Amino acid sequence: MSKINGKIAVFTVFLVLVVVYGYMQAPTNREVKIDSFLIQFENGTTEPEVKAILENYNMTLNYSIDCNSDNGGYKYYIKVDKDDMPDVVKDGLKKDKNWTDSGSPSFTKGDYVIYPVTEQAIHDKNFLEILKRHNIQVKTFVWCLVSYRDNSTRYDVLGKNCITEKDANRITNELEMNENVLIVMPEYICY
Amino acid sequence: MVKNKITIGILLLVMLVGVALIPAVSAQEEKDYSVTAEEALKHANANMIHFIATNPQGFENWTGASIDSKPVELYDINGQKLFYQFSVYKNTNLIGRIDIGANKTLGQSVRLVETDPIPFKVAEAMNKSIEIAKNESPDGKIKSTTIVVYAYPEIGAMTVVKDKTTGVEHRIFVDAYTLEKVEDKPATETEPGVLSMYEKISKKEIDENLKKWQNSDELTKSIEQEANNNGININLPVTEENIKKLSGNTTIASTTVQKAIAIPAYFAETILTVPTYTQATTYYCQPASAQMLTKYYNDVRPTQNVIYAMMNGVAPNGVTDTNALLYYKSSSGMNKPNSVKTTTVIYWDTVVNEIEDHGPFMSGTPTHARVCCGYQDNGFLTSYLRINDPWPVGHAYWEAFGEDTHRIYVRS
Question: Could you tell me which residue ranges the Peptidase C39-like domain spans (chain B) (predicted)?
Fold first, then answer.
């Protein structure tokens, strides 16, 4: 009987220790930490090219690269010269609201407007005719996840497997200057 | 020769006066951006009338409420005054809070409106931060203890303690809801740990924000003018009697005030019925937000543990958007395969379209995930987003537009 009681006591102490340890490990702060970047590259950029591009920047920590279309959102876009944009719009580019998504607005890159378009648009005869008249091709975004994560159970350790917002802002600004990089999105760890 | 000397003399004098004036002008400009407590009270009162009149969700019982004219001053972690937080009472019960920006560079004057405020423990948090400071630095000199927004929208106490020997300053943060210590690195402006709201405002945003403040001031003044015409002093708390005076009839108060003063030329509002859930652990904001959205889109409520696992969460780590999307997209999760993350600069029209055409979405600050389920647009004068926040307990509030940094849009 006393043996069983002893076992229960040991088990209870163990359980309490586990709970206390878990509680101590739980993050109670709200530090801004970024563990990766989701980067949108120009059509046709290959993973080795991505690697070569990133090597020119101080990324602060070691990272891994995963270029996979499932990482990102919109697949397709068109690239229109800023000066030609009014003509293309006049010709009906914004005629059908299903051709674009307000959640992914167009943006400028150098002398061009990058105009994300839906899957529906690229199968729409009218839409394709507009592109044809203006000699515009449908392009595909290349999405890459550049991650600082390692095999640690804690992946939110600053200076080890995630970086500060200040570094993330610097990297974002620097990378977005590169002609092959369209958008850089820091991955904030949310609590 | 004499003429040349006089010319040179005048030039030197002009330069001298110029040199003397430039810092004075700059200082004047800096000073001009601050908002006094009296100005803030005017804005709080005027906007309360506006909310009572427009009657969005959560304000149904606000008629007859009054604002405590003595605000709690909330500071930024950089030491600058950030918000005046006014408490709203009805029959001595706390029914709301209105945060007014203490500086015009923050933008629109009303920063946050809580309609189901969670009581927080200002005195206890301050005492605890002092206590920790004394324990950790027995030889230190406590320089100040203030209530701060340490990582928007989280509020806590900050005690600054200076080591008498080394002269190094430390900041001790204690959360005002949980009374838990919030870690910080030694007090340098660039060290991470907590988030300054002032530091995130870029120079190019300042001009735009000043315009937004002017717009909200215009709305306040138009309400103030109408109140004055009715013999009501807007500097005094807004009572039921005042609302009656403005309407002449309590039963039609809302409509009359609405027509008379509170509705600008353009007004639009939509709130979607999204439940508000509490996050089950300190690091479950993404699962809790996804849980709210799943209930809205699919009318089911999976557990936050299941969602966390599908987001590849490993306790006790937080979750990024890309990992959260694993759950959003999965057929065994939210089953919204075309959901997307975005950090592109958000435009007001984008939010309106998103809510109207698609539905609620995850709205993230740099450290936290919440759900945006509505908006209120007062014709470029003021604009708010309706936020369901899972931390520290699920609650909803109106937030000045422009506070979020990243979003997940839900797409089938």
Answer: 272-391
Q: Domain locations in chain B?
A: 1-32, 269-409
CB B222 within 8 A of CB B9: no
CB contact under 8 A, A30 and B340: no
Chain B residues in contact with A154 by the CB 8 A cut-off are 316-317
A191 to B367: CB separation less than 8 angstroms, yes or no: yes
Q: What CATH number labels A2-71+142-188?
A: 3.30.70
Which superfamily, per CATH, for B269-409? Cysteine proteinases (3.90.70.10)
Angle between the N-to-C axes of helices B240-247 and B203-229, in degrees from 0 to 180, rounded to the nearest 10: 70
Give CATH for domain A76-140. 3.30.70
Which residues lie closer than 8 Å to B375 by C-beta, 6 or more apart?
Answer: B268, B269, B270, B351, B352, B355, B383, B384, B385, B386, B401
Q: Do the chains contact at B354 and A25, CB–CB below 8 Å?
A: no
Checking ipTM against 0.95, whether it exceeds it is no
Residue of B nearest to A154 (CA): B317
Q: Whole-prediction pTM value?
A: 0.74
Inter-chain touch A166–B192, beta carbons under 8 Å: yes
Is it true that A2-71+142-188 and A76-140 share their CATH fold?
yes
CB pairs under 8 A between A and B: 141
Judging contacts by C-beta atoms under 8 Å, the chain A residues touching residue B409 are 103
Q: What is the number of alpha carbons within 13 Å of residue B211 lying toward its C-beta?
A: 5
Q: Where are chain A's structural domains?
A: 2-71+142-188, 76-140
Please give chain B's pLDDT, 412 residues, in tens: 455 565 555 555 555 444 444 444 444 444 579 999 999 999 998 888 888 777 777 788 887 788 888 999 999 999 999 999 999 988 888 999 999 999 999 999 999 999 888 888 889 999 999 999 999 888 889 999 999 999 888 899 999 999 888 888 889 999 898 888 888 754 333 334 588 888 888 777 888 899 989 988 988 888 888 778 877 776 665 566 666 665 543 333 344 444 445 455 567 889 999 999 999 998 999 999 999 999 999 999 999 999 999 999 988 889 999 999 999 999 999 999 999 999 876 788 889 999 999 999 999 998 899 999 999 987 767 889 999 999 989 999 999 998 898 999 999 9
